[in-house]
Amino acid sequence: MKFDHVAIPSSNIPQSVEWYRQHFAAEVIYQDKSWAFLNIGGQKLALVTPTQHPPHVAVAVSEEELNAASKQTGVPIDSHRDGTKGIYIHDPFGNAVELICYPPGKTVYDS
Amino acid sequence: MKFDHVAIPSSNIPQSVEWYRQHFAAEVIYQDKSWAFLNIGGQKLALVTPTQHPPHVAVAVSEEELNAASKQTGVPIDSHRDGTKGIYIHDPFGNAVELICYPPGKTVYDS
Q1: Contact B95/B69 with Cβ under 8 angstroms?
Q2: Minimal Cα distance from B50: which residue of A?
Q3: ipTM of predicted complex
Q4: B9: distance to nearest CA of chain A, Å?
Q5: Which residues neighbour B38 within 8 Å (Cβ) at sequence distance 6 or greater?
Q6: Which terminus of chain B has fewer Cβ atoms in its 10 Å neighbourhood, N or C?
Q7: pLDDT of A83-107, one tens digit each?
Q8: Is B92 within 8 Å of A19 when comparing Cβ atoms?
Q9: What average pLDDT does the structure give for chain A?
Q10: For residues B10 and B12, what is the distance between their CA atoms, to the nearest angstrom?
Q11: With 80 as the cut, is the pLDDT of residue B105 above it?
């Protein structure tokens, strides 16, 4: 298990991307209309449209760990446009934590 | 400039610490009544009492960079109990970003 990213809300993805590029020399890893993935100081920061994705922190897990967590929690696994899969769980104060899996060779980040 | 930590809200620090220990094998770096600093999968995660600290992401900067940013933004530098110093700025959608400085030899993390 490894920390993967933190996702914070934005209602205008291009505007936020530009702000983080200007102020923190962010590099764009992925960007579309509803979210962006940036590298900021060596860490992945996601910008998400809150109506589509909840703000969250994410830890990377294996497919076996994801399947086990899905069974244990009863939360079905979501497949994402970028090829990753995951589930959200919530801490005692409602903060979303994503368990995210990057199936080898099956995400847009492998090319 | 290096990514330093992400801080998420908790209204009961010990309860949240226990949850992250149980579910993500979090290690406690620092803990007091109003906040905790955890290592979760190789990344620092802070748990903060929202009435005392805003949820935020933080990037580590040098004292020179912190002083320059304070002058440029007009935001005065805060000194923290753990020996760090910092300022908060806000992205276009109100997300707080902390510029944090660890003065060498002057924080609780140096001992």
Answers
A1: no
A2: A93
A3: 0.89
A4: 7
A5: B17, B20, B26, B27, B28, B29, B44, B45, B46, B47
A6: C
A7: 999 999 999 999 999 999 999 999 9
A8: yes
A9: 95
A10: 5
A11: yes
Q: pLDDT band at B110, cuts 50/70/90?
A: confident
B-side interface with A, Cβ within 8 Å? 1-4, 6, 8-12, 15-16, 19-20, 23-25, 40-43, 45, 57, 59-60, 89, 91-93, 95, 97
Torsions phi, psi of B108, nearest 5? -70, -10
**Per-residue pLDDT tens over the stretch B71-84:** 999 999 999 988 99
User: What amino acid occupies position A80?
Assistant: H
Judged by CB atoms closer than 8 Å, whether chains meet at B10 and A92 is answered as yes
CA distances to A49, A91, B21, B70, B73 from B76, in Å? 31, 33, 35, 6, 9
Q: Does A25 have pLDDT greater than 80?
A: yes
Residues from chain B contacting residue A59 (CB–CB below 8 Å): 24, 40-41
Chain A positions in Cβ-Cβ contact with residue B45 (cut-off 8 Å): 3, 57
According to the model, what pLDDT value does residue A49 have?
A: 94
Query: For every residue of B86-105, which 3-state class applies, written as one string?
Result: EEEEECCCCCEEEEEECCCC
Q: How many CB atoms lie within 10 A of CB A109?
A: 12
- For chain B, the average pLDDT equals 95
Q: Could you give the CA distance from residue A70 to residue A90 in angstroms, rounded to a whole number?
A: 13
